[in-house]
Design goal:
The complex is a heterodimer of chains A (488) and B (175). Chain A has one domain. Chain A is 67% helix and 0% strand. Chain A contains 16 helices and no strands. In chain A, helix 3 runs antiparallel to helix 7 and helix 5 runs antiparallel to helix 7. Chain B has two domains: 67 residues, Alpha-Beta Plaits, CATH 3.30.70.120; 70 residues. Helix content of chain B is 46%, strand content 14%. Classes of the chains: A mainly alpha (488), B alpha+beta (175). Chains A and B meet through helix 1, helix 5, helix 6, helix 7 and helix 15 of A and strand 1, helix 1, strand 2, helix 3 and helix 5 of B.
Amino acid sequence: MSHYESHIRKPLITGDKTYHDVTLDVVKSVEGKANKSWWIVFSISLIAFLWGLGCIVYTISQGIGTWGLNKTIGWAWDITNFVWWVGIGHAGTLISAVLLLFRQKWRMAINRSAEAMTIFAVVQAGLFPIIHMGRPWLAYWVLPIPNQYGSLWVNFNSPLLWDVFAISTYLSVSLVFWWTGLLPDFAMIRDRAVKPFQKRIYGILSFGWSGRVKDWQRFEEVSLVLAGLATPLVLSVHTIVSFDFATSIVPGWHTTIFPPYFVAGAVFSGFAMVNTLLIVMRKVSNLENYITLQHIELMNIVIMITGSIVGVAYITELFMAWYSGVEYEQFAFLNRATGPYAWAYWSMMICNVFSPQFMWFPKLRRSIMFSFFISIVVNIGMWFERFVIIVTSLHRDFMPSAWTMFSPTFVDIGIFVGTIGFFFVLFLLYSRTFPVIAQAEVKSILKSSGEKYKLIRLQKGDDAKLYDKPEQEPLPDFSSKSNSKINS
Amino acid sequence: MASKALHIVFTDDDILMEAVKALREKKIKINEVFCPFPVHGLDKALGIPHTRLAITSFLYGIVGLSVSIWLMNFIMIEDWPQNIGGKPSFSFIENMPSFVPIMFEMTVFFAAHLMVITFYMRSRLWPFKEAENPDVRSTDDKFVMEIIVNDDNIQDIAELVHENGASEIKLIENK
């Protein structure tokens, strides 16, 4: 039949799995009860979230003066966190869209969670500009809405407004992409639900998905077109985020390498976060047969490549600063590497450029513990990257009398920790209520990439029948009309 | 008019495909198949024409691009031109480079959302919509085929699908 894949390719679904087994494995965490460790992690995240919420309320009631910002450094942790979270979000779209266009089947086990991570991360990112407005209840002023001042419009020349359009398009398109993919899987949970309440809830969430052939045909077309739209979209989003800096005239910011460098960095940090989350989730939710070592290894390779791209970008920046002959530019980079924030610069270099190079060694990139460790290191490194770009470029500006340092207040730290808490609260709730693996898609590759079927083909040849003889009910007799009133 | 339909359950996509081919050879119309996952090639085997959603998406994208151009031209050039940082803002073409990012974003926004809305409308999917798959196992691992039958061909069709590996055959009478 149409299912063919070389034996040389490692199976993407290990174990002796049938279609029904996939269903059971995916619904297990939804239908089962949460264990103790889930509750412990959830409680910690919830406390962090509530603490962050308190700090946000404090900021809004007292003003931005509660942060560590000063006259020289007007942007610090808020924008660092914003860029960090948006960057993390990029892996989800990359996995679901770019890997779909490249027909990479290994995306199917991880795309659902990666997209969930995208949405939750972009939610965190969106909080920071809104809080930093000082009057968040006027956040709608960023939209071009006719008003009583003229109308006084928003400025379409500003990269900050481009950001508004880019982030909201990105969030909303990612959301519909995610939800459309979820419909058949919600329908599966709905059709298995025994209690009326669950059946009702999943019935609403699944939009009445019935799985007709025409629906599936449209579903696949919509997924493909959305992937085609989301691929340039995801590149545009971090490009536009980088424009926030690159279109300014601050030395260290106005470089033309920023767009590709930011996009590579975003993918880099996003894959690291996917690895962090999925290495834990595959263990806790018993999904080792779906999120296999092969998946982790492939993600590590992406981390290694994007980490190297980021490394090249760092060095190119240094070279261009020297080559430009502009002394302000040269100072900005010299100050980064040797100034009072050298510790941040070198932490960034070690975490982002040095540490992913370990992934050249197959033994290390196939080690789960090591992959987890590197994924955390990369996430820390990418936070430092944004901090270095933002704070070290600002803290020593054109007038030495204005030179200063940045120290975060408890509010800065609290809001950052709070968003991490909020992110994990959302992700943990998701992991217990949503189908965390795109089970319909996984079923569609089970025969080509499942270990069980690969083995059958290896033993019996590529033309082997990939199913057991079905158990057939005896053929009913419909011919006598009087008997034909057998209702279902 | 009361109509009769056979609901035929298959346990495997390969068996289903064989049965579909056998039925199509005999020119028997298959009214619907409910599948738990996209069975590749099934739409072709059933003779279902390709969807035109991608074309609608392209058209929606053009609409989005036009809307963004109209919007920014009206706001920045016609309604209230301003000198912002000395950037030229008195003709659209001069100011256009800084409109490109939003022209792109709105193209994608319209193309993606309107296509998905079209898909939901055409496939009749929305919150509170009742599901219409006849057998709950059809979202798990069973494939359910629906064929409208009459008293003359019912037994022939049932025999044909039985030969081709149908595991259950049920008669449904619609009032």
